[in-house]
């Protein structure tokens, strides 16, 4: 373990705005960004007692589509870093835990039983779970912070943790298809084969619409017009359903 917990657990500050992060980037900007020919086999999941306990928890709480999405996010995020940010360093287990737990707040047990937005409730659940299973507080805090902020898509200023940025990039890639050109199509094909989408776009769009109905004040409403009225067309759900990159795999 690194002697610096800020670096090890992925708290290193990086720009929040991906447009700033990728501006004039040597491998990710321009019409033909670098695509390393990876497959899902190049990214085995970290394995530990804590990981296995968290996997068991999320598998019991989440539906299959969300469980698989969480694993795809790990693969895509790790691939993005290996190709385009090879100097970035953080604990891969911490990133995997953030991926596994980032949508735990959408589980039936949590989504409709709290007035909190799903990211915030999920972040608390994740932190408590990691601590209860013996994980270090710094690791629990890193995961919690990344989950709280993983849908701050419209925040342009300031910084975010390294783990939080990778989580954002990978979730929006899987959900909407943004920056899918930064990874090789074969990685997408093999990852979807290992962790099938099973109609993920329609499924997640439905989850978004459900939370907007239940909690019109929720953080997901930041994707919508001001004074959004539940039941009306949702910009967020429309963007998810419009994921042309992943449509062949849904």
What's the SSE blueprint?
Blueprint: H1 5-8, E1 13-15, H2 18-22, H3 49-61, H4 64-84, H5 92-101, H6 108-111, H7 118-132, H8 137-148, E2 159-161, H9 162-176, H10 185-194, H11 200-214, H12 235-241
Antiparallel strand pairs: 1-2
The amount of helix comes to 40-55%
* Helical/strand content category: mainly alpha
Task: Enumerate how many helices there are, as a single number.
Answer: 12
Strand order across the largest sheet: 1-2
Find the count of extended strands (DSSP E, 2+ residues).
2
| Large-scale geometry | globular
Distance between the termini: 39 Å
Order of helices and strands: HEHHHHHHHEHHHH
Please, could you describe this protein's structure?
The chain is built from 12 helices and 2 strands. The model has no long low-confidence stretch (mean pLDDT 97). It is mainly α. The longest helix is centred in the N-terminal third of the chain and has 21 residues, at 64-84.
What descriptors fit this protein?
single chain, 250 residues, mainly alpha, two-stranded antiparallel sheet, 12 helices, 52% helix
What's this entry about, in short?
The chain is an all-alpha fold. 52% of the residues lie in helices and 2% in strands.
């Amino acid at each position: 373990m690194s002697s610096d917990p800020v670096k090890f657990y992925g708290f290193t500050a990086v720009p929040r705005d991906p447009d700033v992060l990728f501006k004039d980037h040597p491998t990710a900007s321009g019409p033909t960004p670098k695509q390393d020919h990876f497959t899902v086999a190049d990214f085995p999941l970290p394995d530990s007692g804590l990981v296995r306990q968290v996997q068991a928890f999320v598998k019991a709480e989440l539906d299959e589509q969300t469980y698989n999405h969480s694993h795809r996010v790990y693969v895509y995020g790790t691939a993005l870093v290996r190709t385009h940010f090879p100097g970035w360093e953080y604990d891969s287990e911490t990133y995997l835990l953030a991926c596994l737990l980032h949508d735990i707040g959408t589980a039936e047990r949590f989504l409709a039983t709290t007035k909190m937005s799903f990211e915030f409730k999920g972040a608390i659940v994740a932190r408590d779970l990691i601590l209860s299973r013996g994980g270090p507080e710094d690791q629990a805090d890193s995961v919690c912070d990344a989950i709280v902020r993983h849908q701050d898509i419209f925040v342009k200023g300031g910084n975010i943790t390294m783990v939080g940025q990778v989580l954002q990039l990978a979730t929006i890639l899987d959900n909407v298809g943004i920056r899918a050109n930064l990874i090789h199509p074969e990685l997408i094909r093999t990852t979807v084969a290992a962790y099938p989408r099973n109609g993920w776009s329609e499924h997640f769009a439905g989850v978004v619409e459900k939370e907007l109905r239940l909690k019109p004040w929720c953080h997901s409403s930041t994707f919508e017009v001001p004074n959004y009225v539940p039941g009306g067309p949702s910009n967020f759900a429309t963007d998810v359903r419009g994921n042309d990159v992943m449509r062949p795999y849904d």
